[in-house]
Every structure is written in C-alpha cells, then in structure tokens.
Task: inverse folding
C-alpha cells in the first residue's frame, strides 16, 4: 500500500514540476515579446528620396558642414512628438533637417536667413508640399572642444509650421 502511495506521490510531483517548467517558459516568452515591443527599431525612418540624397550630398560638400541628416516623426494636434515606434506618413508628421558644423568660424558666419532658405527649398522642391506635413525643423549644431574632457554645445534651431500651402516661421521665447 505504501508503494502505491509513493508511486502516486512521485507521479504527482512529476506533473507539478512539468507544469512549473512550462509555466516558467510561457512567462519568459511572453515577457520577452512584450519587452521587444518597446525597443527602438533601427531603420524606422523612411528611405531618403533621390532628391533628398542629392541635396544632402550638396550640403555636406559645403566647407565646414558635416553630418547632414533628416528625421521624420509623427506629431499630435499640438505639434508634440508621439514617440511612435514606426513613422506613419499617412498621419501628421514633422520633418527635421539636422547639420553638424565642424568649426566655429563656419557656425558663427552662417547668414541669418539660412534656415529660411533651407526650409523653403525643402518644402517647395524636396518634400513636394505633402498634405500631412505639419512642421519643418531646421537645426544647426556645433560642439566646441575646450579640452579633452570638456566641450560646449551650440545650436541654432528654427521651426516652421505649414498653414495651407505656406510655411510660417514660429516665434520662440528667447529667455
């Protein structure tokens, strides 16, 4: 009689152990797949058009200009980024043009209307007045190296809203 009980007990323990192992595996798989949803995706930007590639290469060819890039991101009605995993060009979006400048002479000698010229050219000739485009951001940055452990970043950023088929420069508080 005791042997029958010990056999039943062993079988019950085996079943319980298998259930625990399978539960652990299922929980791990669910957790990993859930965590993967919130990881940033490389290549979530749309491919550069031929016109963008040509224009960006021309810009990188300018003396002192380096790392000319663009990013596209979805925005809400107030113009704030939605921080979505993938960009959807069928929803309202913003277009950001970013350039790193190599030296202070180039950065501080940029004409005042440079951002206006670039935004206008992008809107009229590169982006083709997309109906979902709501904002264009032009950003220039320069990092001044003080010594091997210290640096100071400088930037010039202008934002433009699209109203109808016109670009309107947004004013910012400078305080």
Result:
């Amino acid at each position: 009689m005791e042997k029958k009980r010990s056999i039943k007990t062993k079988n019950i323990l085996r079943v319980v152990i298998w259930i625990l192992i399978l539960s652990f595996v299922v929980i791990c798989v669910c957790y990993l797949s859930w965590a993967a949803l919130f990881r940033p995706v490389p290549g979530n930007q749309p491919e550069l058009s031929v016109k963008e590639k040509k224009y960006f290469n021309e810009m990188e060819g300018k003396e002192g200009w380096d790392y000319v890039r663009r990013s596209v991101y979805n925005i809400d009605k107030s113009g704030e980024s939605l921080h979505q995993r993938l960009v959807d060009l069928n929803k309202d979006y913003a277009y950001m043009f970013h350039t790193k400048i190599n030296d202070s002479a180039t950065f501080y000698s940029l004409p005042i209307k440079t951002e206006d010229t670039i935004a206008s050219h992008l809107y009229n000739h590169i982006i083709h007045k997309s109906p979902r485009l709501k904002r264009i951001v032009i950003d220039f940055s320069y990092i001044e190296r003080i010594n091997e452990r210290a640096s100071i970043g400088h930037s010039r950023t202008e934002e433009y809203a699209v109203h109808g088929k016109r670009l309107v420069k947004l004013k910012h508080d400078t305080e």
